[in-house]
Amino acid sequence: MDKERQNILWNMAGSFCYAFASMVLSFLVMRMVGKEEGGVFAFGYSTFGQQMFIVAYFGIRPFQVTDGAGEYRFGDYFLHRCLTCMAAVAAGAAYLLFYGYGPWKAGVIFLLVCYKVMDGFADVYESEFQRTGNLHLTGKSNTFRTLLSVGVFLIVLWTGGSLLWACGAAVAAQVAGVLIFDLPVSRRLPSIDWGMDGRRLVPLTKATVLLFVSVFLDFYIFSAAKYAIDAYMDDVASGYFNVIFMPTSVINLAAGFVIRPVLTHLTGYWEQKRYERFVSMLGKISWLIVALSMLALVLAWILGKPVLTILERILGAAYTGSLTPYHSAFVVVVLGGGFYAILNLYYYVLVILRRQTVIFGIYVVLTALAWILAPMFVKQGGILGAAWAYLILMIIMAAGFIVGAWVFYFREK
After folding, report:
1. Across the chain, what does the average pLDDT equal?
2. pLDDT band at 212, cuts 50/70/90?
3. Residues 110 and 17 in one domain
């Protein structure tokens, strides 16, 4: 099998495993430990833990992957990632210390922060695999680590371990995954330069800090409705909203299948000033994402209630009638996920154009809007209000990225 086909297939496998785990883990935990603990896990895993992943990740992946000229060595990226991961753990601990959660809830969420930080640490290897043309290794790493850590977590929980112990076991499995796969593979690839220079930390941080702040704000905007539910509703509502939010993972998974393999091609076309090829590829990807999003919307409208009914039955008798009232919210969330998928594509376009300040400006405006809209909609409409807040924010943000990308495309051209 040629490398290009391996890149595509393993990227699909890795993306599918990661997205599938993100989509169903909270659902399975609700089934295994109940509504209250399931809601705590859902918030810690998919919301706050993911926010701390962003701190560890620092928004560098698009910059590293598109650093085709080798401005920075892998060792520079590695050293920088070690520091951002330590900062993420410290920030997560500080937030939990001052927010006032009980010891058990704080412990579970902190372990989920550590789990997500290890995801962020592994990403520096996976980004380098992609930068050196070995996207199949990125997919293999993602697949192996996800299956190992999620498998260990579910086994511990299923065999009677508490949620706290299961989260601790998952963290240990994440560490093992990096040590078993990523580190040995990176040492064997001659194209990876482990040389590092501490003096490069400052210029690398300056070059990517706006990307970090932008991605951090992006996830806050994406999750503002979840934060509002955590603040103004209960843990059960957090669990329910996370269930109806699952289709966004499917949409982003499908979009990722399309976007990731062509990023290096888009970068090459832009650097080589092959503008017609750049526009042609961008147009095809855009329309494909739109088509997939519309298909998801139609399926959500037609099959949403039967699917939610099936999910209730899978969760157990205690959940009967708990999800089907949120069919409208389910459909609204799916539409919002479509807009989020398309804005992600144009986010990468602006990164290729090196327009970090434009990205930052859009996120600042949307963050202020999210801070106002999400609590207001949740207070007034509960879970349906949260879904509408999410959709409105995604529409506005998508419009900003698309307009910004095309304006600066024509200006640079």
Report:
1. 88
2. confident
3. yes
Based on the number of CB atoms within 10 Å of its own CB, is 78 exposed (0-12), middle (13-18) or buried (19 or more)? middle
Q: Does the residue 90 lie in any domain?
A: yes
- pLDDT grade, residue 365 (50/70/90)? very high
Distance of alpha carbon 81 from alpha carbon 146, whole angstroms: 20
Residue carrying structure tokens 């999410």: 390
Q: Which of 196, 216, 245 is the last residue of a domain?
A: 196
Question: Residue 182 half-sphere exposure, CB side, CA atoms within 13 Å?
Answer: 28
Q: What is the pTM of this model?
A: 0.81
Q: What is the rounded distance in angstroms from the CA atom of residue 14 to the CA atom of residue 391?
A: 28
Residue 319 belongs to domain spanning:
233-413
The alpha carbons of the chain give a radius of gyration, in whole angstroms, of 21
Q: Are residues 278 and 338 in the same domain?
A: yes
Q: What Å distances lie between residue 381 and 365, 378, 386, CA to CA?
A: 24, 5, 7
10 Å CB burial of residue 164 (0-12, 13-18, 19+) is: middle
Q: Does the residue 228 lie in any domain? A: no
Nearest to 183 by CA among 119, 136, 126: 126
Question: Given 169, 196, 223, which residue is the final one in a domain?
Answer: 196
Q: What is the pLDDT of residues 98-110, one digit of tens each?
A: 887 889 999 999 9
For residues 9-32, average pLDDT = 82
Query: Which of 239-253, 318-332, 362-376 is predicted with the least confidence, judged by mean pLDDT?
Result: 239-253
Residue 216 included in any domain: no
Q: Are residues 347 and 245 in the same domain?
A: yes
How many domains is the chain partitioned into structurally? 2
